[in-house]
Amino acid sequence: MYRVLIVDDEKMIRMGMKNAIDWKKLGVDDVFTAASGNEALKILKEEGPEIMVTDIQMTEMTGLELIKAARESVPELRVIVLTGFDNFEYARESLRLQVQDFFLKPIDEDDLFNAIEKQIKELKEQENKEQNQARVWRSQGSVVQMRLEQCMRNLVHTKADKEMQLYILQKDFQFDIKQKMSLILLEQGMYTEQQNDGKFRAMTVKNVCMSMVDSQNRGITFVDDDGTIAIVCFEKDDDDSVLEQIEELSDVLKDEFEYKPKITVGSAVQGFENLAISYNDARYLLEHEKKNIQDIIQTMGAQNKKKIFWEIYAELRNIMISNIGTPDYVLKAFNTFIKATESYNLSPSAVRRCCFEIASSLIFSYMEVSCEVEEGKLDALSKSLSSAGKEEACEITRMFIEQLIENDEEDVHYTISNARHYIDEHLAEDISVSSIAESLYITPNYFSRLFKRITGEGCNEYIVRKRIEKAKSLLETTSIKTGKIAMMVGYRDTNYFSLAFKKHTGKSPTKYREEMQNT
């Protein structure tokens, strides 16, 4: 059943509309009336009607002002406007406020009946759409995902017919089963169920991984038989593509959870049929290299001194790129690079080449995040480096970096303000660090670090907090079922919603509603 609010400062008109319509026939359970905009806003807050019929010309607050205020608290409210004046500006403003219908007074009761019937029909269609979407989410987001994860477990643990698993991956999930890939494992230290909030944290870590990998079609995230999060990373032509992907994921996890997990990387294999080999490599490293000081541990054979340096260099360069929003990190990584050139006795020409590559990468990263870079700056650096010795080349490049990373804080805060607005506008959707960063045309790693630096909390933490705040408000002021509230605040899985809500409030959603509505 639905609820309707009629707003008009003339009692005869509002009561006339209330008494003229067969509300039961429309499926309307309650009809409220208000003589002013302030009274209407109070009813909207306390009773939650889905449809509002309002006059424009009223004392104290106009109908247009009422609609603006109502939209802020009840954005989904359906509005029918009535006016005694055939004024184009009224009509245009009503359209801008996205009202559903506009009528001149006096309105015929049949026209009003039909107008409200139309809104109720659209409400029902929206409800059916949400229910269907919920079913799709439940089926695709859980059943299909569970089937995919089981298929991956069967492959890495070799406990089912391999040919059948490959057939499922190719036919049902449309994967290229012959592509090159590596499997990585995340140590359970950051999401172990021994923690008080372990189950919720484990689901959150997995969701972040899926938003960074699966949603970008870069791989498959699943949980193995031991409860360890495993990720199949698809290789590209670039040999460093998987390592860069892992480093980006590692940095985002550190920003979001204040803990950098140890990640082990299995050997690259050709095709899903060989995935168990990569998995076993990663599992061996996870179990036998726990004291290794590196965050990302790879399988490696005998390596000469030169090869080790270039791996260190690549890692430091990626750290500088991925931390472009944190100047201290960039300079710290560059200082480490200088020490490495000394330790490995790099030639002057090699130092110059590395310095120019670092500067080029940083300029490109700044251009990607819309920071202005002075034209010709890289050309000037190239000329300065052309005949410089090792120490001079490093000093020239350090000065270049210091000038480059003097960001305009106003632009930074503008970016975060836009991010917060985007989150508030899309709470009910499947938003993530990656999707927000994409909407802002910046990289997830840069955005994640920037958000943490400016706001003091991880973006994922902020999203969860805002969702819980909205859920609390809905639980306190409405009788909407908990499952629907979960959907309205962006949780497809009601169990996950309950875990998140209890973690933040100490109570289940049902218990919270009972306590708040009985006070």
Automatic annotation (TrEMBL):
Domain of life of the source: Bacteria
GO CC annotations on file: cytoplasm
Residue ranges occupied by any Response regulatory domain in the UniProt entry: 3-120
Domain HTH araC/xylS-type: 417-515
Major location (coarse): cytoplasm
Molecular function terms from GO: DNA-binding transcription factor activity; sequence-specific DNA binding
Coiled-coil features, chain-numbered ranges: 109-140
Keyword vocabulary terms for this entry: Coiled coil, Cytoplasm, DNA-binding, Phosphoprotein, Transcription, Transcription regulation, Two-component regulatory system
Residues bearing PTM 4-aspartylphosphate: 55
Entry keyword Transcription: yes
InterPro entries named among the record's database cross-references: CdaR_GGDEF, CheY-like_superfamily, Homeodomain-like_sf, HptR, HTH_AraC, Sig_transdc_resp-reg_receiver
Record GO biological process: phosphorelay signal transduction system
Pfam family, one: HTH_18
Compartment(s): Cytoplasm
Function field: May play the central regulatory role in sporulation. It may be an element of the effector pathway responsible for the activation of sporulation genes in response to nutritional stress. Spo0A may act in concert with spo0H (a sigma factor) to control the expression of some genes that are critical to the sporulation process.
Family matches, as PANTHER family: HISTIDINE KINASE-RELATED, TRANSCRIPTIONAL REGULATORY PROTEIN HPTR
Name of this chain's protein: Stage 0 sporulation protein A homolog
Organism of provenance: Blautia wexlerae
